Amino acid sequence: MTKVLKLEMKGFKSFATKTEIPFGDDFNCVLGPNGSGKSNILDALCFVLGKAGAKGLRVEKSANLIYNGGKKKTPAKEGEVSIYFDNTNKIFNNTDNVIKISRIIRQTGQSKYKINEKTVTRTQVLDTMSKAKINPDGYNIILQGDIIKLVEMSGVERRGIIEEIAGISVYEEKKQKALRELQRVEDKMNEADIILTERKAHLKELKTDRDKAMKFKDLDDKIKRNKATMIDKSIKEHHESKKKFDAEINSIKKEIKEIEDKIHKKRKSIEEKKKLIDDVNKEVEKRGQKEQVEIHKQVEKLKIDVAVNNQRIITISQELEKIDNRRKELTGSFKDLESKIQILEKTKKELKEKIKIKEADIKRVEEKIETFKKKNKMENASDIDKEIESIDKEIEHSQEEINKLREEQQNFLREKDKSETKLQGIDEKLEKMLEVEKENKDSLNKLKNLKKEFKKATSDLNQSLTEDQSLAAQQSTAHSKLLSRKEDYSKLTARSASIREHIAGGRAIKDVLDQGFSGVFGLVSELGDVKKEHALALEVAAGSRLKSIVVETDVVASKCIKHLKSTKSGTATFIPLNKIKGNANLKEIKQSGIIGRAIDLVSYDKKFEKAFKYIFGNTLVVDNIDTARRIGVGNVRMVTLTGDLVETSGAMQGGHRERTRGMGFMEKEVKDQMKKLEKEISELEGVSANLTQKRRDNEELITRLRELKANLEVDIIKLEKMLRVDSEDLDSDKNQKSALRKEIAELDKKLEKIMSYLTEKNSELASYKIKKQKLRDQINQLRNPALLAELTSYEQKKTELKDEINNINLEIKNIDSERDNIFGPERENVQKIFKQLDKEQKDFESEDKTLKKVIATQEKELKAKEESEKKFYAI
Question: Among residues 135, 169, 186, which one ends one of the domains?
Fold first, then answer.
């Protein structure tokens, strides 16, 4: 005899909180008023024992078994029921003395079963219960209405119940199930034998194709790998060239600055000399020799001009030398581009050859399909299929024409009814107006004025409605932009949040951060921001310390450690700011390739300075491993931008490293982007609010205009009823009456024409349907499952070859795109630079020739002036 110890329920039906029902050794009874949940206990018992079907548990769907919270309380996320059995007599073939069976139902309606907290399937639960002869659908549990059913059922049905209680029916069901399964297996084996017999003949041929395909795939993979290697190498070479050019540019900039400083000094010296000359000239002028002063000025001016022009010639020669060097570099780059383009063209040619081979294979497969169809007389079936398809198209076309004709017929009938109604109304109006016009002339004028006002109100209303549509469109656009910016902001927020998710992935770290202890500031990675280009280097430099938790004091750290011990959550590293010591006294090293100290490349709050000094210490960030070696391995701790690490011990760590997002510091660019998006979101929210207000004001205007229009309409109707008229003008009504009669006559002709077309199309449609049914009867006689299976294999092969051709075409497109979008523009840029260099060279050479002629002229003039000056001073 199996003993039940207790039943536990939580979140199941009316049991919101955990409810425990113990069972004694003797008879157990549950008492309570109506609606207290007595029946729910029996439902819980059936539920935990694995009863299937929601109706058996008195609910419409499984999710309704979960506590819904009533009117005021919070609904449960899931429902759970557990039952405890005494297993001291080892009925359940389990070593435990107590067997706990649990079943959990989720909002999706899916159930989860557990035996002694170990997840199992429903079948395993039922097998375990069957050891103790417990069945959730059996008669050892008597539900509401079962006794009445037992009394009313026949003797045969009662016998079935006795067999089920005795355990005989279970074996009978298993036997029938096994026989059905055997039959299904035999049927499937017969089908498989037929297909295998037919396909064995093609295995040798397919094997040859497979071997070729495998060889092709292997070679194709090798080509792709080698191609990727070449591209990677090319990218690295370009990066190296860029760095080299950047270094040259910086060097030239320094030279330019030095020359500019020299020029500045020379100009200053010239100014001083000019001042001295002016003083001398003034002295000479006092002596009355103005003409000679003028000569002296001209001499000095000529000397300055000659010196400036000579300096310009030197500068031009330097520039020409630079142009030659640049041309040599560009020639090398251009040759590299041409060789890469040739490689791409060669690859493209090979791929086109592959396409030809595949197309030939497709042709062979199509020939096999045709041969197979002729051999098995299946070509008629495809012809019939095509004929049925064409008939379907004709039927569809005819049906569309019939629908159009019927629609036209209905439209014409509606137009005719409208015209007849209008005609009848006009006759009545004409009679009334002839009587009223004589008697109520003033009232008619008032009616005309009201109608004018009504037209104006209608026009204003239409304008406001148009404005409303425009505002709605603007509001929708602003809302879409706002949603887009919010989505971008959410992505960036999720990206920044992923730092904590990845780094705080450890149970201990997550536990500490989730507790919200006072004095816990957060992870190191959350407290510092870095630029994107420095991120990988700084994350490698920080290492495992990136996952450390910064706290205010050692007391807070001790508190957190005790918490982790008590919860057995694991271990975590803490950095108490009052105790931690860090060394960041690295002297400045001036060498090319040094980016800077690691600690200087991180943005952080000043109060966390000790923590970051401890993490980075005297670590130096350099551009590459060669720079590190040049500085000296072992002299200082260094890390490269690509994540290679050189320790002071001399140990070196490096290689290919891929940075995973969400595993390090927050990037400054992300933060700046988030601020920009926050500003845009704020502006868009303002625009949206402004448009909403405008639309609200416009809607109020629309409401007022509608009320005015309705009031005017009421006044017009009252006057028209009083005057018994609905028209404005007697002559216009007479003209409209004759026009309506013509329109009705034309509509009658059109309706007759459509009726004749409809009759023709309906008979045509019926003949198509009869023909289609006959063809379907023919094609059903030609169908054979075995032949169709073999034909399908050929068709699959053909489809596979077509897919391969499509993939190769896609690869060719990628090659064309790479050639046109990457190498093509680069080649054009190089050619443009060549042209620009040629133009610059010509300009410099022309300027050089001109300057030399000018200098020769100036030197002759200077010689003459100097001789005149000597004569003056000789006097």
Answer: 135
